[in-house]
Specification:
It is built from eleven helices and 14 strands. By secondary structure, it is of the alpha/beta class. Helix 3 runs parallel beside helix 4 and helix 6 packs across helix 7. The structure holds phosphoenolpyruvate and manganese (II) ion.
Length: 339
């Protein structure tokens, strides 16, 4: 439920409501709106006496949250959530688009630093790259682990880009969170609830990729796990779903972008690289994603895709990325966004 405080209510009255809600065994999320504050109270409501909350000084009304996801829902917060990335200072979810680019896997030091410079020069705000790779085959390259994180941190030092990298397991959360500016949860882990809770308990923003067979509701409920565990900074990412179609790796379901915007305040990016699986489809689908209202893109860029340790068919070269960015800027202008 949402406890709507009256515009004239005091901080003390707000704190009192929070205390009462928590005493009843619910979790409270305070949202400071432009003209009034609300307390989203979520959890098992069996022991809750709504009348007692309604009667508190400063409370205007109580409204039920109808959506199954609660704090991720627009019913709780109308204004779009803006998430600031360190150290770049880029804001995801505002007027400016956030473009995240870099190799599929971190392969070596020079590759990482060179790509970071190239994507930064083209206008990216963050460097992506996997140090822990979720590979379909156990014989495929699994990533450089902590060494890869160190290379990314060095690239950050040199370029000022934020670093986005995936965490695969709960025991690695602390380490990945120490190096990363944004912790990524990959498609295969979107419903790994213990991992969602663990990234919800660390301080860095989370990039949550849509599971390849997840519905929009399941996607938002996964985001809800992270927010409910204490981390409101969730960036959603559509990366394509599995369908009967096999001419591309996944079917990039761009309709989810405006659909998410209708029901949630969370920002949503699009990954046209995994979403298509083919380098030639990355640019057209990037443009389509921005036209559809996405808050940015996640794109794999590799200096030599043919020899990439992972995903060689879908990575684009730095010069292609530069061209793509020029076109993205034009579409951005058309939909009243900037880069
Ligand atoms: C990735 O972004 O590196 C990745 C593995 O993507 P996904 O989880 O979307 O497959
Ligand atoms: Mn990849």
């Amino acid at each position: 439920m949402i406890v709507v405080m009256s515009p004239k209510s005091s901080e003390e009255q707000l704190n009192h409501v929070v205390e009462l809600v928590e005493e009843m065994g619910l979790t409270s999320h305070v949202i400071h709106g432009t003209d009034r504050n609300v307390v989203a109270a979520v959890g098992d409501k069996r022991q809750v006496d709504k009348g007692a909350i309604e009667n508190c000084p400063g409370v205007e009304k109580i409204v039920p949250i109808l959506a199954p996801y609660k704090v991720a829902s627009k019913e709780v917060k109308q204004e779009p959530t803006e998430i600031r990335l360190e150290p770049s200072g880029a804001v995801i979810g505002g007027k400016a688009l956030g473009i995240i680019a870099g190799p599929c896997s971190i392969e070596d030091r020079n590759q990482t630093i060179d790509i970071a410079h190239a994507v930064k020069a083209a206008g990216a705000v963050a460097l992506r790259g996997g140090a822990f790779k979720p590979r379909t085959s156990p014989y495929s390259f699994q990533g450089l682990a902590e060494k890869g994180l160190e290379y990314m941190a060095e690239a950050r030092e040199e370029t000022g880009l934020s670093v986005v990298t995936e965490v695969l397991t709960v025991p690695h959360v602390k380490m990945v969170s120490m190096y990363a500016d944004v912790v990524q949860i990959g498609a295969r882990n979107m419903q790994n609830y213990m991992l969602l809770k663990a990234v919800g308990e660390q301080p860095k923003p989370v990039l949550l990729k849509r599971g390849m067979s997840a519905t929009m509701e399941e996607f938002l409920l996964a985001a809800e796990y992270i927010i409910d565990a204490g981390n409101p900074n969730v960036i959603l990412c559509e990366r394509g779903i599995r369908t009967f179609e096999d001419y591309c790796r996944n079917t990039l379901a761009l309709t989810i972008v405006p659909a998410i915007k209708k029901v949630s305040h969370l920002p949503i990016l699009v990954d046209p690289t995994h979403g298509t699986g083919h380098a030639y489809l990355v640019e057209p689908m990037s443009l389509a994603a921005i036209a559809s209202g996405a808050d940015g893109l996640v794109i794999e860029v590799h200096p030599d895709p043919e020899h990439a340790h992972s995903d060689p068919a879908q990575q684009i070269k730095p010069e292609q990325f530069k061209e793509l960015m020029e076109k993205v800027k034009r579409v951005a202008t058309a939909v009243d966004r900037t880069i």
